[in-house]
């Protein structure tokens, strides 16, 4: 069968996504591949289809033990015989699986990295024809990545012990060039086809919001979202707990999740979220790895994460089904201070500290960017999406006009310069606003010629202007515990009047960002029958409960929407629906056709 036929038969999809074909072709030809695609971008198909096309067995090495069962259930449901080997199996179960693997009953075997070098696994593997090894979450091999997993270093050792070297595919969502180089080197990939693609998630509406009162903003935001699933990320356990209880008190159905909770309760919360009982989770970044619920409609960051990479990962848990979803970052200057403290508390070597501060600064700059947020994110990852105005991010949605701020910038810069570049943001602001504060007097800052010169601007507006200058490299804020402002090489041109500074109007006028998406979050382009959809969803929920499976593994929402639109009553009609392949049809086709038939009879 061709790759197109396989895609249709096993997955029920009509066409490949960007990058998938290239990666499949390379692996099929026996060339190593390194696929860098964001979470939700569709990496699995890039190694599952070659696995189906190759004569032998494919090993998938994955760190996500908690998720292996789901992944393998999903494959078997699609009619692809697969199994997994990890520490959750009892000895008897392991033995049985080994037996069946020896009998060549499976096309794909998922395995935890810790297993690779064990004697029993090595023995097993020596008796098999393995022609492809897919390394999922390949960045786990790098110490510099965010989820270093020491046993990933066993992978090349393992591969070198095989008689014939299989084709190796590595897949990750981490794109920092340093980590990518590490993956290639440490995994010993042979001239891999390297593909970086898909970082622009078109269905995600990125926004940075600067509310006066974060709690109030959140509460109001949630009021319009009662039917949607979402995640609210906080930076500390304490914030998770207090926000959860406040929201509960206000009548919202939310649950908290953080690393300090009892593990049983924690996994209950996670399971309930996945299965659809709990809609909204308030969590630290401990909530994440392996959350691949497809219909998360919003990810709201109550606090700023530690860098762009984390932000992208966390925000990227929204909208995996391709429907429009919000990614909102609530910004407050206090969060930067908090993150800096967190970074400097981990006493590490200078070089690492410097990298972490730089990574944080990139995200701070993102919060103060005037340009397209989508472009800002993609270019961080090294992808040029070639648009200046996407029309669908917080910055491109609002029609803003720019105003000239060259004079103001000059005043700010000259004050910083004349006072010896040793004051922080708030002292400079107070001086510019002509504050009568004791400190200002005692440092003689009221003697400065620029004292009070910008008193017409609110404190928030001045902060905005200065942060914008920092984001654009016209000012530098040191990264120590008590950051001070300094001039940069770029400041000169402004001071000399050789260059102008333009700033978005609303930055200067309001501190409360009103530039929110006004677009309705539409879940589908189809005008489907909502009543029928509900009945189909109820059926799916029932099947999920009975089989102890996540609902989305049965059918995705998009598939249900199509069913509720086309209302097929025949096998062919069912197979025309996106997401229904032959095997899924065998498993569930009749059950859902019955629902449609009953529904139509009642009408
Ligand atoms: P990743 O592993 O990159 O995070 P997945 O492989 O889990 O992403 O894919 C994310 C979702 O996209 C899944 O629901 C998958 O079925 C779907 N998907 C992948 N490829 C396609 C395609 N060509 N057409 C439609 N949906 C796809
Ligand atoms: Zn944009």
Question: DSSP strand (E) fraction?
Answer: 5-15%
Given the structure, what is the number of helices? 27
Distance between the termini: 42 Å
Major sheet characteristics: 7 strands, parallel
The mean pLDDT is 88
Q: Output the structural class.
A: alpha/beta
What small molecules are bound in this structure? adenosine-5'-diphosphate, zinc ion
Shape: globular
Low-confidence stretches: 510-524
- The value of Rg in angstroms is 27 Å
Sheet with the most strands: spatial strand order: 3-4-2-5-6-1-7
Number of strands: 17
Helicity level, as a percent range?
Answer: 40-55%
How do the strands and helices of this protein lay out in sequence?
Layout (H helix, E strand, L loop, with lengths): L2 H9 L8 H9 L4 E4 L6 H11 L3 E5 L3 H13 L4 E4 L5 H12 L5 E4 L7 H8 L3 E6 L18 H7 L6 E6 L4 H10 L6 E4 L7 E6 L4 H10 L5 E5 L3 H13 L4 E4 L5 H13 L4 E4 L12 E6 L6 H8 L9 E6 L2 H13 L4 H18 L5 H9 L12 H4 L4 E3 L1 H13 L6 H8 L5 H5 L16 H13 L3 E3 L7 E3 L3 H5 L6 E3 H5 L20 H18 L3 H4 L2 H10 L4 H5 L6 H21 L1
Parallel strand pairs: 1-6, 1-7, 2-4, 2-5, 3-4, 5-6, 8-13, 9-11, 9-12, 10-11, 12-13
Antiparallel strand pairs: 14-17, 15-16
